[in-house]
Design goal:
This protein has about 425 residues and is α+β, with helices and mostly antiparallel strands. It folds into 3 domains: about 190 residues, no CATH class; about 55 residues, SH3 type barrels, CATH 2.30.30.60; about 150 residues, no CATH class. Helix content is about 60%, strand content about 10%. It contains 18 helices and 8 strands. The strands form 2 sheets. A 5-stranded antiparallel beta sheet has the order 4-3-2-1-5, with no helix packed on it. The protein has a 3-stranded antiparallel beta sheet with strand order 6-8-7. A hairpin with a 4-residue loop joins strand 1 and strand 2. Helix 2 runs antiparallel to helix 5. It is rod-shaped and about 140 Å long.
Length: about 425
């Protein structure tokens, strides 16, 4: 600054004018240096680093580049130059130094934030990230770093030690707990969720209280993001997964089978003993021929051994159409290609109710995808609804308008109802 001022005075300029001009020239000089340094950093240094990273095909390096860590780091260079030249402005030296340091701290915080984001992105490339997500912990570190950075900035501007500001945090602890309540609850919840392996990214969960029914796509400090099957997004507070009940379908997804649990309601008035004609008919059914032969021999041996008079079908043992139908369903399911034969396969009767006798099919499909599961389930029940009448069984349903119309039409044909002619 003095050198520039002395050079201007050689031209016999007014001392005050020379001083102001020297300040302007110095500012322009510093600005040019900062511009050139920033240009060199971004156009040359960063390009060289980018070329090296991409030439070596480093995945983590590409992630760091995408997060613009080096570009944000380049902002520190002009601040260092300004700080170095602060002594040229004696009157404003202290202020310039404080502002330059503040800018360096802010730029440093931006770099740390980008590094943490890059670290999280790199971690997400590993399979373990779905089991142990760390985004919540990264957010906690960001809060701590930004808080400490803000304290250092304030301490620098007021010219005090950061320790003095930190000592006052005791009085502000209650306020901080109130302000960061959700973050603290989310942190505790995140630790418990990770430690107990309760949820992972990709898990299908149901939480009716929050209208959530779909896959988890993100776990953060405060929220768990769920994409529902209708493609809407539900945000659930992290601590709600600890305090409230929810269903995780991961066990089903890992088991390799998805459960079908549905009943056919049989009209109990259609249940009867099998006649000889029915038995002969059943022998020609693929899934029943062996069963009928074995069962007939077993029943004949039992009745003969116990000298049971079979003139009345109530005496002794006999086949029923519901029992044969149940055996047919069981054999049909054992041969069905869409059913997992390594898991529970059961056809059972439940307690009769006002809708008839529930005949429940309890099996697991071999494919857990939704579309295939629904297709297999529909295929099974399409078939069972169609074959039930072949066993002399009627499936129950509440009377429809068509049923009532049929009754009225039948009554008219029998002359029980006369039409009134107008």
């Amino acid at each position: 600054m003095n050198f520039i001022n002395n050079q201007l005075l050689k031209y016999e300029l007014d001392p005050d004018l020379a001083r102001y001009l020297s300040i302007v020239i110095m500012i322009l000089f510093i600005a040019i240096i900062c511009f050139v340094a920033n240009l060199i950093t971004k156009k040359i240094v960063i390009r060289i680093i980018t070329h090296i990273v991409r030439a070596n095909q480093l995945e983590w390096g590409n992630i760091i580049l995408e997060r613009q860590v080096f570009r944000k780091l380049s902002h520190i260079v002009p601040a260092i130059i300004i700080y170095s030249f602060s002594g040229s402005f004696e009157t404003y030296e202290s202020l310039i130094e404080k502002l330059a340091i503040t800018y360096i701290i802010i730029a440093g915080l931006m770099v740390i934030n980008s590094l943490l984001n890059a670290f999280n992105d790199i971690y997400d490339t590993f399979e373990i990230s779905k089991i142990k997500p760390i985004k919540g912990y990264i957010q906690v570190i960001k809060i701590i770093v930004i808080t400490l950075g803000a304290i250092v900035v304030i301490a620098n501007l007021i010219g005090k030690s950061p320790l003095i500001l930190l000592s006052g945090f005791g009085a502000l602890s209650a306020v901080l707990l109130l302000v960061f309540k959700d973050s603290l609850l989310g942190l505790v919840a995140g630790v418990q969720l990770a430690a107990n392996d309760m949820v992972r990214v990709g898990d299908w969960i149901e939480m009716p209280k929050y209208g959530a029914d779909g896959d988890i796509i993100e776990i953060s400090l405060n929220t768990v993001k769920v994409q529902n099957w209708d493609k809407t997004i539900t945000m659930i507070p992290s601590y709600a997964l600890i305090s409230d009940s929810f269903k995780n379908w991961r066990g089903m997804q890992n088991s390799g089978g998805r459960r079908i649990k549905r009943s056919l309601f049989i009209d109990t008035t259609s249940i009867t003993f099998c006649t000889e004609e029915m038995i002969e008919k059943f022998k020609n059914i693929l899934y029943l021929s062996d069963y009928i032969v074995i069962k007939e021999q077993e029943i004949e041996e039992y009745n003969t051994k116990n000298e049971i008079n079979r003139s009345n079908p109530v005496n002794g043992r006999a086949l029923t159409n519901i029992g044969v139908f149940r055996s047919y369903i069981n054999n049909y399911l054992q041969k069905h290609p869409g059913i997992n034969q390594e898991m529970t396969l059961m056809v059972r009767q439940l307690a009769p109710n006002e809708h008839g006798l529930p005949l429940e099919i309890y099996v697991f499909t071999s494919d857990i995808s939704w579309a295939v599961y629904e297709s297999v389930q529909a295929d099974i029940f399409d078939h069972l609804f169609a074959v039930a009448p072949e066993f002399g069984l009627r499936l129950f349903q509440n009377p429809s308008g068509h049923d009532l119309k049929s009754i009225v039409d039948g009554a008219k044909e029998d002359g029980m109802i006369r039409e009134v002619e107008h």
